[in-house]
Q: What sequence folds into this?
């Protein structure tokens, strides 16, 4: 069977992987790279459980053919979030506020949170936070505690920015 | 009682963070599809393409190389070809009659999923098709014309007083019919299971499930193995909501049958499309109320017809029906009640457990109807409910006396105050043609039977064990051994809180591992809002028992027999100031006598009386109570319905962890919001029409309104812990409060959920044309 070889930066480390070109990025992440934190909830771009950052943009990895991801691409998955300061802060607040219940949506949800707080001038109003997570379905929590957690993390991160400025 | 117990609580009542929080936010929790399965094969289910008929034979394409795959047909089943649930009418693999489209007709396993799937496509059945009945509409039509022509799966009545007399005493009689459709649990982790053949001929099943002791014993007759050879372990579970209560037995059975035949581990993980098409749903319902009323608002008679669409096989339908009819008049005093409940077969996927288990259907109808009754009498909806609400000393439809203080009518009064219901009523638009936006506010008030129906807990005899042993960190501590599962609701957090307080030791010395039938006794299934109430209380009592044993050992070994008490992690005796930490004593005990296990078994109060035949007596050990006020806005042009705010109050007994309890309510209300206004699923050509996430639309973060949530605590007095249930009550009652609010906004009542702009449009048109 025809395969392709790619070298990517995954969670800050260089990996070379080989796979059939039409394989979903989600499968390459889970099966080839063995990073099981990224989940499949629907396989059709609706639930957001498979969200990752591809070159700093959140994408649903179930809809991407891995062969289309070029050499040198940067991928950040849930396993890499804790290597970042913002990721750690978000994880801490998710736990503190009780944002995770079954936890299955959480890797994708956290990726959405991370993309939001690390974006340019994030708007942290309740409405903006809800919009930033609208592509991620959670069936357990009713989202209240997730929004609360992101809001608390964003608040803390923005204070740090102020400290940096002074 | 509660005062002394409360004072010993250091963890119970606190909103401590989840035990499994860290592994979940780091992506480390291992769900069914994440566990390693070396050399594993993938299973696939071959399904019937017709809804009903006689299966004549299966054709295997001779051009396909069958040596590469493993096929299981009914002849390969070592035991009986039957799913051993409440009813025994469902075969594991259809062998004669097909009763629904999608019914399994063969199983296939292969080294890759693609090959298993390909092999499946080379198996074609010959079926002599027969007419099928597919929808609840057809059932209700026939029920009204000729009920005998229907296939009845189960029927049950409740009777109190004489409804004829009640109607004779009434000044007014109010009638109404209410419909509800299928609802999909839509846990985000699809169903998945792996079966590993064991060297001794047994089978080890791991996967996403709510009830290890449903799966294991239910497979005995099919696999023809003794219980000891069927080991079941729960992996992390990505949501259940009832969907992983009864169904996992099927998927575990498919994996086990294939694994036993091919000798390899076999894994089946459904994709979303399969998961929606081929797993159980909430039963669609049709409920007809006839209520007799006095002018002053007193209810004199309630007559209810309660019909459920069971789907093709019985599964848990009897139990769902029982809970449904018991909740169909619950919450109100009435001397004369008659409830007639039936489940009828349709040739569609069997319906099964879903959070609420019949109660949401019952309460949808009841609380819509109570508003209708109030309206008919020109009474305010809250005044009508306050007038009739059950209070201490009153009796329910089954004759159960409300014998302990409960959240009725406090939850109602509290919610009215917090929501400013009475003041806001005046603002309701009631379809005002001049308004740019229609506003409405609506109310619902309800109870949820806590624990199993009737004396179910007596028959079940829930057990919990505590193992005093060396934990993974090398220090002594407690492993809680229960079959109750964690699926997001917080079992693994609250159980350590409870056990630590029962023992009076530090929380970090207590663990609650994933249940594995090899180690845990049967604490019953994780259903019916019973885990905290029943199993939690059993864990608490087991902890008290172990505490006494530890104190005796410490007294004898370290304090020369002087009375010794374990408190706050320290053993102290009354005479000296010397104290010894728990770890020191426990270590010595384990070194001397080995790990220690204590058991405890739950006992219902002897005073609880229940007659399962006549449905008379105490239908539940206790009740949780809830009240919702929903505020809605309807756009008069587009008829788009927006739920603006939900105010609610809950009596769930003692709150063990307020953060988790509130999380349960927020999640339950969100699912209930979907049930009320979004989640639409019909039957088309014999299968569910919304078969993907794109078409089965559930609430997102943008759809969820502001939620103002309050708790009032009326502890269950039979247990020291005093918890009742929170899991289901939050799902039960939102839909009618929204329907009541929509009526207040638009002036028309909708009697079918989900409430959609299309249905509202039809109703407004109907009402306008009948007014001309
Ligand atoms: S699995 Fe990719 S969006 Fe659902
Ligand atoms: S926590 Fe269960 S789906 Fe979000």
A:
């Amino acid at each position: 069977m025809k395969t392709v070889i790619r070298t990517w930066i995954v969670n800050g480390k260089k990996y070379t992987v080989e796979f059939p070109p039409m394989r979903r990025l989600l499968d390459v992440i889970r099966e080839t790279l063995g990073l099981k934190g990224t989940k499949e909830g629907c396989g059709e771009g609706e639930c957001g459980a498979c969200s990752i950052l591809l070159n700093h943009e959140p994408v649903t990895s179930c809809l991407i053919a891995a062969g289309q991801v070029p050499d040198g691409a940067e991928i950040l998955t849930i396993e890499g979030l804790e290597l970042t300061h913002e990721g750690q802060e978000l994880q801490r607040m998710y736990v503190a506020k009780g944002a995770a219940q079954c936890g299955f949506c959480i890797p994708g949800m956290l990726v959405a949170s991370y993309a939001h707080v690390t974006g340019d001038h994030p708007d942290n109003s309740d409405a903006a936070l809800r919009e930033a997570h609208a592509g991620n379905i959670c069936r357990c929590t009713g989202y209240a505690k997730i929004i609360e957690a992101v809001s608390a993390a964003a608040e803390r991160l923005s204070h740090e920015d102020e400290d940096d400025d002074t | 009682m509660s005062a002394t117990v409360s004072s010993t609580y250091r963890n119970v009542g606190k909103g401590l963070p989840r035990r499994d929080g860290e592994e979940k936010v780091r992506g480390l929790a291992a769900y069914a599809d994440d566990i390693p399965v070396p050399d594993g094969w993938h299973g696939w289910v071959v399904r019937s393409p017709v809804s009903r008929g006689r299966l004549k034979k299966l054709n295997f394409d001779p051009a396909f190389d069958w040596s590469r795959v493993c096929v299981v047909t009914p002849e390969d089943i070592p035991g009986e070809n039957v799913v051993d649930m409440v009813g025994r009418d469902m075969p594991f693999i259809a062998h004669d009659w097909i009763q629904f489209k999608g019914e399994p007709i063969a199983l296939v396993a292969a080294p890759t999923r693609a090959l298993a799937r390909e092999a499946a496509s080379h198996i074609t059945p010959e079926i002599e098709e027969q007419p099928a009945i597919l929808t609840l509409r057809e059932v209700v039509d026939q029920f009204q014309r000729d009920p005998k022509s229907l296939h009845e799966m189960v029927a049950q009545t409740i009777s109190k007083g004489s409804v004829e007399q009640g109607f004779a005493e009434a000044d007014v009689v109010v009638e109404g019919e209410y419909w509800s459709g299928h609802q999909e649990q839509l846990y985000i982790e699809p169903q998945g299971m792996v079966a590993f053949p064991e060297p001794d001929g047994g089978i080890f099943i791991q996967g996403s499930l709510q009830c290890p002791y449903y799966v294991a014993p239910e497979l005995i007759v099919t696999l023809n193995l003794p219980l000891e050879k069927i080991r079941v372990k729960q992996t992390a579970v990505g949501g259940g909501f009832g969907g992983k209560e009864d169904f996992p037995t099927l998927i575990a059975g498919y994996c086990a049958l294939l694994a036993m035949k091919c000798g390899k581990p076999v894994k089946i993980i459904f994709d979303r499309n399969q998961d929606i098409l081929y797993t159980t749903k909430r039963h669609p319902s049709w409920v007809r109320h006839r209520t007799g009323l006095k002018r002053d608002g007193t209810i004199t008679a309630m007559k209810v017809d309660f019909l459920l669409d069971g789907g093709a096989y019985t599964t848990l339908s009897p139990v769902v029906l029982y809970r449904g009819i018991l909740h169909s008049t619950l919450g109100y005093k009435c001397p004369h009640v008659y409830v007639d409940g039936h489940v009828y077969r349709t040739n569609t996927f069997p319906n099964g457990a879903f959070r609420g288990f019949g109660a949401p259907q019952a309460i949808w109808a009841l609380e819509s109807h109570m508003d209708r009754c109030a309206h008919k009498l020109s009474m305010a909806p809250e005044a009508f409910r306050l007038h009739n609400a059950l209070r201490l000393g009153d009796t329910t439809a089954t004759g159960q006396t409300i014998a302990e203080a409960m959240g009725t009518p406090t939850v109602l009064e509290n919610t009215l105050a917090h929501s400013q219901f009475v003041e806001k009523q005046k603002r309701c638009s009631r379809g005002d043609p001049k308004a740019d936006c229609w506003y409405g506010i609506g109310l619902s008030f309800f109870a949820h039977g806590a624990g199993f129906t009737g004396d179910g807990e007596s028959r079940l005899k829930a057990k919990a064990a505590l193992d005093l042993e060396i934990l993974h960190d090398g220090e002594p501590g407690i492993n809680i051994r229960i079959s109750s599962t964690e699926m997001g609701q917080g079992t693994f957090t609250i159980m350590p809180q409870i056990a630590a307080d029962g023992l009076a030791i530090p929380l970090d010395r207590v663990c609650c591992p994933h249940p594995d039938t090899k180690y845990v006794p049967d604490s019953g299934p994780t259903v019916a809002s019973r885990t905290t109430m029943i199993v939690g209380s059993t864990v608490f009592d087991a902890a008290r028992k172990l505490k006494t044993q530890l104190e005796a050992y410490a007294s004898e070994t370290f304090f020369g027999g002087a009375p010794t008490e374990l408190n706050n992690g320290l053993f102290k005796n009354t005479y000296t100031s010397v104290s010894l930490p728990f770890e020191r004593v426990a270590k010595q005990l384990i070194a001397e006598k080995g790990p220690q296990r204590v058991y405890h078994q739950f006992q219902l109060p002897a005073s609880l009386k229940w007659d399962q035949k006549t449905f008379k007596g105490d239908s539940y050990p206790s009740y949780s109570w809830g009240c919702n006020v929903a505020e809605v806005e309807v756009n008069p042009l587009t008829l788009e319905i927006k739920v603006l705010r939900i105010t609610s109050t809950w009596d769930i007994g003692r709150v063990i962890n307020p953060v988790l309890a509130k999380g349960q309510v927020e999640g339950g209300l969100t699912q209930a919001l979907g049930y009320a206004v979004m989640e639409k699923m019909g039957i088309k050509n014999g299968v569910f029409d919304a078969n993907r996430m794109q078409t089965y639309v559930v609430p997102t973060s943008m759809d969820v309104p502001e939620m103002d949530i309050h708790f009032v605590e009326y502890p269950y007095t039979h247990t020291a812990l005093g918890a009742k249930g929170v899991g289901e009550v939050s799902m039960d009652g939102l839909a009618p409060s929204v329907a009541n609010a929509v009526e207040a906004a638009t002036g028309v009542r909708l009697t079918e959920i989900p409430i959609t702009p299309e249905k509202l449009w039809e109703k407004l048109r109907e009402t306008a044309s009948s007014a001309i």
In short: Residues A 40-43, 45-50, 60, 62 surround FE2/S2 (inorganic) cluster (ligand 1) (CB under 6 Å). Residues 438 and 738 of chain B are 14 Å apart (CA to CA). Chain B touches chain A through 55 residues (CB under 8 Å).
